[in-house]
Protein 1
Amino acid sequence: MARILLVEDEEKLARFVELELTHEGYRVDKAFDGRAGLEKAEGGGYDLILLDIMLPGLNGLEVLRRLRKTSAVPVIMLTARDAVMDKVNGLDTGADDYVTKPFSIEELLARIRVCLRRHADVDGPEGALAIADLTMDVMRRRVERAGREIELTGREFALLKYFLENKTIVLTREQLLEKVWGYDYLGETNVVDVYVRYLRSKLDEPFDKKLLHTVRGVGYVLREDT
Ligand code: CA
């Protein structure tokens, strides 16, 4: 069964979440501050990390930033209500998802399932994906084009990965939302356009050949120019 590390300084909440996760069959470890959490996370062996942002010692964003230097383990951030900047920063730093406090345990469990499922695909046998001179080493979380490394945020990486897995296939915004963002974002399709723009500025604009094409009225497709 999946091993989850919970980094949360509110001990009552941590105990409650641990109890519920254990009940669902997950194996749970806890850390109550940022430094202890980072140390445990870097020790490895976890399938998923639940990371509170407001933590003593190191805050959650700093823990995530340091952890991402060595690990692609899925991370769900626990954020305070209305802390929009935290969510944006968390996703940019490489969080896979976030849950806003106070959350229902059903919501948390649903996010955990989505996150673990998405990552199970990543850890599949094919470690590398490619099109033209663009390559993605999924396990090492590394993207290169024409031999040059391209730095992507967590969400950009997930979006590009989905494009690569479905190269030459036209994908609708709704499909991309559902597969890359998960059920909870349904309806806000313009977030897809924003992230496609980010990807283009990193993947296409510095190079001669365009790979990410708009299909008017439908969506997007990753393919070599013909
Ligand atoms: Ca806290």
Note: Residues 3-120 form a domain with the Rossmann fold fold (CATH 3.40.50.2300).
Protein 2
Amino acid sequence: MRQPLVAGNWKMNGSRASIAELLGGLKAGIGQVTAAEVAVCAPAVYIADVQSQLDGTSIKWGGQDVSVYESGAYTGEIAGSMLADFGCHFVIIGHSERRAYHGETDEVVAQKFTAARAAGLVPILCVGETLEEREQGITEEVVGRQLDAAIKHCGIAMVGEGVIAYEPVWAIGTGKTATPEMAQAVHAFIRGRLASNDQAVADVVRVLYGGSMNPKNAAELVAQADIDGGLIGGASLKPDDFLAVCSAANS
Ligand code: PEP
């Protein structure tokens, strides 16, 4: 039995004031969410604030990216040990926005996965196809390649210590959600690819769906056999919406 996980990806949004308000709302409502694990992934500069406001609650927190390096002359980079120093549990790796705007390759993403694990963080590895790739019928080829790169570089046992997030790029921030059946098909493919490397890993790894998931569509998505929760962008910025998604996953 895999514990559902709902993780918010705040992206580059918020201020100290708005984050305090958001966290206040989450803390007030999170008591109803007893079965699902819940986390928020904050912009790096706000992680200390998030730590001080969430410490002692059931809500975990994390970063949105990590350096492949441990320390040194890498201006602007943030090491896994730094995220761990501020109590981060999770870190998002290979989000499509980082792949698209920061040139992160499958190889770099795999290195980041290793760096995160070396710091004791749980990586949330994002995979997913663009609209063009879906229309070309190469979704499985793309997602399989992204997953294989991590398995090849990190080994299946290490991949088993992380979380996978299937995020069709065409569904992120667009309001277009994959239908539950479309998402389930790719999630089943991901689990099958993990199983072909190690059945025990495939049985325990959580595969989240991400892409315009919201209170209206969350229940149907998480009802699918291979969808173990969500990575939530826009809806994670509103406490009531995020809590509603958490409640949908809370079984
Ligand atoms: C995301 O960016 O990880 C995401 C899922 O965004 P949204 O929910 O806004 O589509």
Note: The longest helix spans residues 139-154.
